[in-house]
């Protein structure tokens, strides 16, 4: 025989219409979420009384009932008036019993006071009373947020590394983009990298990127990325699409920015050797444990002007922050 289930939500009951309205909204919410019929009932004061509702539902063929107890604690209403009368004593387990000569299976939820969610809801509602007059004042202007944060970072980086000028600004931007002060110790800037990059930008050279996320973040009118059209070449050469996109784009001197893909950096170095191409600057911050560390170290040894986030650290946002700082200086 197929079981026919219903949820009976039971409250203490109240003569106030607002109470019943609130409880009905909760019952409707349960029904919509569980897709099982939910019937609101009450222990006293208000109809329908759960006893009459239970009899009515059993007459209609329902034989499995989940009693959702909308009570805070385990008082007599729960233990005696409801569970005792039905013949059940345990929460969260199905029990076969008889009610008015009708054999039914019943399941009772615990009252709500021991729920962490109920405790949290009450906490937040009470907490508002104490927060009204003593709320922390937060800075909301985005420019002020950035400038204050950068001032803190600059001071810390200068103290730790003893750097100044544009080198300090680039390292600080990398820290700001990553949210990690430890990044400052991993930034390598070759002696001629900053000046070479700025001069290339002043000469309006294009910027070639490994991924479109980097391209989207750079504030420069000549930013190139060939990832969407690199599939055929990647398949032909047996390399990644990011590597193939670098090979497609690196046909003349360009600033190269690698923020995500170590294989794109490997290919940049390979193309540079093959073509003896003059690359004015490579910004490299691909993160990871495979190829990333090795390719970045190879770049440092190559002698190409470079700004590198060494080790496993990195990310597209850091590369973008570094390049945008160089663009800001070049456009002064």
Written account of the structure:
The chain is an alpha/beta fold. It has two domains: 5-114, Rossmann fold (3-Layer(aba) Sandwich); 187-330, Rossmann fold. Helices cover 48% and strands 15% of the residues. It is built from 13 helices and eleven strands. It has helices at 17-34, 50-59, 76-86, 116-131, 142-161, 165-178, 193-202, 212-217, 231-237, 241-249, 262-275, 292-302, 316-330, and strands at 5-11, 38-42, 64-69, 95-99, 102-108, 187-189, 207-209, 223-224, 255-258, 282-284, 306-309. The strands form two sheets. Strands 6-11-10-9-7-8 form a six-stranded mixed beta sheet, with helices on both faces. Strand 7 (207-209), helix 8 (212-217) and strand 8 (223-224) form a beta-alpha-beta unit. Helix 6 (165-178) packs antiparallel against helix 13, helix 9 (231-237) packs across helix 10 (241-249) and helix 11 (262-275) packs parallel to helix 12. The chain is elongated, with a radius of gyration of 34 Å. The model has no long low-confidence stretch (mean pLDDT 92).
Q: Please give the count of helices.
A: 13
Give the name of the CATH superfamily of the largest domain.
Cobalamin biosynthesis CobH/CbiC, precorrin-8X methylmutase
Classify the fold: give the CATH topology of the largest domain: Rossmann fold
The H-and-E topology, N to C, reads as EHEHEHEEHHHEHEHEHHEHEHEH
Q: Please state how the strands of the largest beta sheet are arranged side by side.
A: 6-11-10-9-7-8
Quick one: how many beta strands? Answer: 11
User: What portion of the residues fall into strands of 2 or more residues?
Assistant: 5-15%
- How would you describe the shape? elongated
Task: Give the CA-CA distance, first to last residue.
Answer: 82 Å
The poorly predicted ranges are none
Q: What structural class is derived from the secondary structure elements? A: alpha/beta
Count of the separate structural domains: 2
Give the second-level CATH assignment, the architecture of the largest domain: 3-Layer(aba) Sandwich
Sheet having the most strands: 6 strands, mixed
Average pLDDT figure: 92
Fraction of residues in helix: 40-55%
Regarding CATH, which class of the largest domain? Alpha Beta
Rg from Cα: 34 Å
């Amino acid at each position: 025989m197929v079981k026919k289930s219903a949820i009976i939500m039971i409250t203490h009951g109240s003569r106030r219409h607002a109470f019943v309205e609130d409880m009905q909204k909760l019952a409707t919410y349960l029904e919509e979420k569980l897709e099982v019929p939910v019937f609101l009932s009450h222990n006293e004061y208000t109809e329908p009384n759960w006893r009459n509702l239970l009899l009515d539902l059993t007459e209609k063929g329902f034989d499995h009932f989940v009693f959702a107890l909308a009570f805070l604690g385990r008082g007599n209403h729960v233990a005696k008036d409801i569970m005792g009368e039905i013949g059940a004593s345990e929460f969260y387990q199905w029990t076969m019993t008889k009610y008015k000569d009708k054999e039914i299976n019943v399941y009772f939820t615990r009252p709500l006071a021991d729920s962490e969610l109920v405790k949290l809801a009450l906490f937040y509602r009470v907490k508002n009373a104490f927060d009204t007059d003593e709320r922390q004042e937060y800075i909301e202007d985005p420019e002020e947020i950035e400038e204050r944060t950068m001032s803190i970072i600059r001071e810390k980086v200068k103290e730790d590394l003893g750097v100044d000028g544009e080198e300090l600004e680039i390292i600080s931007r990398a820290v700001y983009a990553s949210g990690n002060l430890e990044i400052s110790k991993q930034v390598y800037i070759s002696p001629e990298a900053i000046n070479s990059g700025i001069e290339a930008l002043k000469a309006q050279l294009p910027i070639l990127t490994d991924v479109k996320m980097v391209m989207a973040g750079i504030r420069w009118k000549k930013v190139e990325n060939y990832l969407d059209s690199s599939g055929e070449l990647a398949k032909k050469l047996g390399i990644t699409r990011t590597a193939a996109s670098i090979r497609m784009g690196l046909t003349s001197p360009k600033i190269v920015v690698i923020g995500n893909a170590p294989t794109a950096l490997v290919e940049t170095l390979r193309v540079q050797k093959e073509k003896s191409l003059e690359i004015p600057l490579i910004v490299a911050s691909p993160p990871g444990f495979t190829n990333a560390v090795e390719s970045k170290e190879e770049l440092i040894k190559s002698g190409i002007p470079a700004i590198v986030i060494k080790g496993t650290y990195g990310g597209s946002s850091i590369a973008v922050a570094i390049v945008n700082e160089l663009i800001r200086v070049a456009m002064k």
